[in-house]
Specification:
This protein is of the alpha/beta class. It has 13 helices and twelve strands. 37% of the residues lie in helices and 15% in strands. The chain is globular and about 60 Å long.
Length: 359
C-alpha cells in the first residue's frame, strides 16, 4: 500500500492532524519526525486543538501549527466548512491523520487534499486514500507502535519510537525561577507527583496515599515534593498539600503546560497516574513511576528505559472504565510502601552516582 505518486518537492504541503489529548500527542511525535524526514523539502503543518498545540512548540520537524478553533471559527456545522476552506488555501498534497474520527477524514476530503492517510476506522474508509486497515492485534501493542504503523503501511520510512519534547533555554530558566519562588532547592533532587488524570476517576490513585507518600519521601530525602496537574487539579493538589503537613508545594493549575514540561525535566523522579504528563516525562527522559490500574499497560505504559510501573494485577484489569463499578481493587492494591520503596531505589541510585562523581 505504498504511496507511489507522492514525491518530496520544494514548497510541497503536508498536513498532520494531531491527536486530541496531550499524552496521545506526545506519542505521535515519532510519526511527525518520520513524515518530515520522508519529505524534508515539504512544509509540514500541524492541525491541533488549542490544549494540545503546546506539545509541538519548538519542534524542528513542524514548520507551522494551525489551531483547530472548535469552540469558535471552526465550530461544528458551518465551522467545519470554514476549516476545510482554510485548509484548501494551503494546497496540501498529503494529510496524515493521527486522529481516528470520521470528522478528521471528512475535513481533509472537503479541503481537496489529494492523499489522505489514516486508519480505516469510524466508517471513514471511503474518504481515505490510502486507508490503512486496522490490525486487531495492535490493540495489545503500545500506542506508539500503533501510530507508527500508519507510516510503515503507507510505504514510508519509519524513524524509530523515540519520543520528543523540545524545551528552550528560556523555558528551562523559567522553571528554575518557579522553583526559587517556591523555595525549592533543586540540588537535592526534586520529586514530582501527578495525582490527576483525565477520563474519570478510575485511573487515579488515592489522594490520601499520595499525601502519605509525599510526606515520607520529603522526610527521607530532605526535599519538598512538587504537585503537578492542570486547572481541574488545583483543589486536589491543595488537599494533598494539607494532608502532607505542607511537605508538598502545589503547582497544579498554576503553570502553563510548557512550564509543567520544564519543571518535570528537573525532577529526579516523577510519580504519576496514567496521564498525559506521564508520557511527557518519557519524552523528557525523566525517571518515573507510573501507577497503572484499569488501563492496559501494554498500550499505554511509560516508554523508555526510565519508565517504571507499579501495578497490582487483578482479573478485571484492564477494564478501561472511567469509574470502577466494583471495589477499585486495581488501585487499592497499590500500597504506599510499594511506591515508596520503588521511589527510594531511584533516588538512592541517583545519590550513589553523585557520590561517585564527587570522588
Amino acid at each position: 500500500m505504498a504511496m507511489m505518486d507522492l514525491k518530496d518537492k520544494q514548497g510541497g504541503g503536508i498536513l498532520v492532524r494531531a491527536a486530541n489529548w496531550v499524552g496521545d500527542a506526545v506519542m505521535t511525535t515519532p510519526v511527525i519526525r518520520a513524515v518530515k524526514k520522508n519529505f524534508p523539502s515539504s512544509r509540514l503543518t500541524l492541525l491541533a486543538k488549542p490544549w494540545v498545540a503546546p506539545v509541538f512548540d519548538h519542534n524542528p520537524y513542524v514548520d507551522r501549527v494551525m489551531i483547530y478553533k472548535e469552540s469558535g471559527r471552526h465550530k461544528k456545522g458551518l465551522g467545519t466548512l470554514r476549516l476545510a476552506r482554510d485548509l484548501r488555501r494551503s494546497e496540501f498534497d498529503l494529510a496524515v491523520l493521527m486522529q481516528n474520527a470520521f470528522e478528521a477524514a471528512l475535513i481533509t476530503f472537503l479541503a481537496g487534499i489529494p492523499q489522505r492517510l489514516g486508519y480505516n476506522t469510524d466508517g471513514r474508509g471511503v474518504l481515505l486514500n490510502p486507508a490503512i486497515p486496522l490490525n486487531p492485534g495492535f490493540k495489545e501493542r503500545h500506542l506508539i507502535d500503533y501510530y507508527r504503523q500508519i507510516v510503515k503501511k503507507a510505504g514510508l520510512i519509519d524513524d524509530g519510537p523515540h519520543l520528543h519534547l523540545f524545551l528552550t533555554d528560556e523555558e528551562r530558566a523559567g522553571a528554575e525561577q518557579i522553583l526559587a519562588e517556591n523555595d525549592i532547592d533543586p540540588t537535592g533532587g526534586i520529586i514530582g507527583i501527578n495525582p490527576g488524570a483525565t477520563g474519570g476517576n478510575a485511573k487515579r490513585w488515592f489522594p490520601e496515599r499520595f499525601a502519605k507518600l509525599a510526606e515520607r519521601l520529603c522526610d527521607t530525602y530532605a526535599t519538598k515534593v512538587v504537585v503537578f496537574g492542570g486547572p481541574a487539579d488545583r483543589k486536589l493538589g491543595e488537599y494533598i498539600r494539607s494532608l502532607s503537613k505542607d511537605k508538598c508545594v502545589n503547582l497544579a493549575g498554576k503553570t502553563t503546560l510548557r512550564q509543567a514540561f520544564a519543571l518535570i525535566a528537573r525532577c529526579a523522579v516523577f510519580i504519576t497516574n496514567d496521564s498525559g504528563l506521564m508520557h511527557a516525562a518519557s519524552a523528557l527522559d525523566v525517571n518515573q513511576l507510573a501507577l497503572i490500574g484499569p488501563t492496559d499497560h501494554r498500550a499505554t505504559a511509560p516508554y523508555g528505559l526510565k519508565g517504571g510501573m507499579v501495578r497490582s494485577p487483578v482479573p478485571c484489569s484492564p477494564c478501561r472504565k472511567k469509574e470502577c463499578p466494583v471495589d477499585h481493587k486495581c488501585m487499592k492494591g497499590i500500597g504506599v510502601d510499594m511506591v515508596f520503596e520503588k521511589a527510594c531505589l531511584v533516588m538512592d541510585k541517583l545519590e550513589s552516582r553523585k557520590e561517585g562523581c564527587a570522588v
